[in-house]
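Exam revision sheet. Question 4 asks you to relate a sequence to its structure. Input first:
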Amino acid sequence: MKTMYVTVLTATALTVALLATSIPAIASEIDDRIESMFEKSFIYKTYLKDENVKISSSDGAVTLSGSVSGENDKLLAYNIVEALPDIKSVDNRIEITGEPHDEKSDIWIGMKVKGVLMYHSNVNAIGTDVSVKEGIVTLKGEADSQAQKELTSEYAKDIDGVKEVSNEMTIAAAPEPAQQTLGEKIDDASVTAQVRMALLTHHSTRYVNTKIVTNDGEVTLTGITKNDAEKSLFTKIVSDIQGVSSVKNEMTVEKVE
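Answer key, structure tokens:
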């Protein structure tokens, strides 16, 4: 009986020891995966690769450090990490090296307009020149169609502080046909981050608390909107984000007593 008791204790001690050694190993694997996913993400490679952004994960608690040129990049880094799986917390210690700009100043507005155009797929962000003077936004460059030109104006008007939009973009005489290529698939975390950034930038959606979940390019939205028109606007904006294949809008309309 004594021998059996000792054997049971030995087996139990061995199990505890194995668990004690395996848990740190699993945590280390998760941390390595988090750091790797961040550096391989579309967001990092497209917007943050040339910035000095460093990531360190300890049991799912992520610390971001280093420096970026503007507030937009700091927020973007936070949003991509927060969208990764197995994240417990994000401590954003990234420093901003560029000069701070007052909210709704001309420089601030210009940065917001350029930023929001980058997230949308049906406008030509790279080919659009944005200048701002006293809240009036002037757009120049070339659009593929009249519809694209009008959509660019629509997005620019929906930025806080914009008083007016003067769209001087020209329409391409013979726009290049859209090329159907496999291209690089945008990861779900990057899709979620871009959707979050776009909704925070658009005046029409920035004040609504929205939960965003992306699964293989399909974005599910939950939250509360004021009316059906606002709910439809969320669907329209999110549908035009790079990497979004479809939108499932499960937001509820606030009941008016």
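Marking note for examiners. Helices lie at 2-40, 42-48, 71-82, 106-119, 146-157, 188-201, 228-239.
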